[in-house]
Design brief:
The chain is an alpha/beta fold. 52% of the residues lie in helices and 9% in strands. The protein is built from 18 helices and 6 strands. The protein has helices at residues 5-11, 34-41, 43-54, 85-88, 90-99, 115-126, 140-152, 157-160, 165-173, 180-184, 189-199, 210-218, 222-232, 237-252, 258-265, 271-284, 286-300, 320-326, and strands at 63-67, 74-79, 103-106, 203-206, 305-310, 330-333. The chain has a 6-stranded mixed beta sheet with strand order 4-3-5-2-1-6, with helices on both faces. Helix 1 crosses helix 9 (165-173), helix 1 runs antiparallel to helix 15 (258-265) and helix 5 (90-99) packs parallel to helix 11 (189-199). The two termini are 35 Å apart. Residues 1-6 have low confidence and may be disordered.
Length: 338
């Protein structure tokens, strides 16, 4: 099995913050489920991966009810920046609770996602300082291979070389076949949620700013990220497609927490990628979870709040479900499937 845990965690940015990666449509790709492949190739390790996920607090579930005596119920939904039909099918299950909510809290509201604002924060955080490029840290061979890879993703090297490695890594982790949603104009899941709320006259408010999200990604260590990209250049192109399929399938099954154990199972031969993967989880998940809960709390204290944020923000002892429970609310999983 070809292995690249860094690509898997970078792919998981689809379930952390939609602005950090392109919109993705799985229908354009044809990948294999690597968790199923692990079950066939190494049943013992597959069992260990499932056991590791089961030990994670609130490991299963994309939809949660938040209650406190005397308040109308609120809800928490783990969303994704994809247009795969398996994800869009969740809309029917959450529709009534979403449309009857007093307020919808998302990561970024529409005011933060205007072309002008996004261009400003991209220029501020995604690019290296003037005069610097990635080429100074690459051998000629590495540069040529990376230029081929960025071109395959529709980004010429003269442009890509000016990007910080952390931003470039998220772009390269999504297979080209999955980026067709941008060209076709498909609406991804988190966009549709905001649209449903708006059509029902539900107030939509952001928990973060684009500046904060891009600043978090800019905190990733440049050397670690670049080393991980270089380490992954020799991998089969199909691997990223398989990783995308695996990640989307786990989300659709409401088992996104399995990603952590799967990363461990696939990480034996890629130490640089493992370092980058661990760093991405530390930088992009836990600090933002605390910020989102702190900012959501005034609305949760009123009741009638619907929170829709990336699915990987929900599980774990530092996830949103646990943090909201510790704030004094009852939080119970709701079924999304009959």
């Amino acid at each position: 099995m070809i292995r690249n845990p860094f690509a898997l965690v970078a792919m998981a940015a689809l379930f952390l913050a939609g602005t950090l990666v392109p919109a993705a449509a799985q229908t354009a790709c044809s990948g294999n489920n690597l968790l199923d492949q692990l079950a066939r190739d190494d049943p013992a390790r597959h069992t260990a991966v499932l056991a590791e996920a089961a030990a994670i607090e609130n490991s299963d579930g994309n939809f949660w009810k938040i209650e406190k005596p005397g308040l109308p119920p609120s809800f928490l939904f783990g969303t994704a920046h994809i247009s795969d039909i398996r994800a869009l099918n969740f809309l029917d299950a959450i529709r009534s609770n979403l449309q009857s909510a007093r307020i919808l809290l998302v990561e970024l509201d529409a005011s933060q996602q205007t072309p002008l604002n996004m261009a400003a924060v991209l220029a501020k955080y995604a690019q290296l300082p003037d005069g610097e490029t990635l080429e100074s840290r690459l051998t000629d061979s590495q540069r040529d291979r990376m230029a081929d890879e960025t071109a395959r993703h529709g980004m010429p090297w003269f442009q890509a070389r000016k990007y910080r490695a952390g931003f470039l890594a998220t772009i390269l982790s999504i297979p080209p076949c999955a980026k067709l949603a941008l060209l076709s104009g498909e609406k991804v899941l988190d966009m549709r949620i905001a649209e449903l709320a708006g059509n029902a006259n539900v107030t939509v408010h952001g928990l973060e700013t684009a500046d904060e999200q891009f600043a978090a990604l800019a905190k990733l260590d440049e050397e670690d990220m670049l080393d991980a990209i270089v380490e992954s250049l020799d991998l089969d192109d199909q691997f990223a497609v398989d990783m995308f399929e695996t990640t989307v399938a786990l989300y659709a099954e409401e088992r996104i927490s399995i990603l952590d154990g799967l990363i461990d199972a696939l990480s034996d031969d890629l130490p640089e990628s493992q370092v980058a993967a661990d760093q991405m989880k530390t930088v992009l998940v836990v600090p933002r979870n605390r910020t989102m809960v702190d900012r959501a709390m005034p609305e949760l204290d009123k009741g009638g709040t619907f929170i829709a944020v990336g699915a990987l923000h929900l599980p774990g002892d530092q996830g949103l479900v646990a943090l909201i429970r510790r704030a004094g609310f009852d939080v119970t999983r709701q079924k999304l499937h009959p």
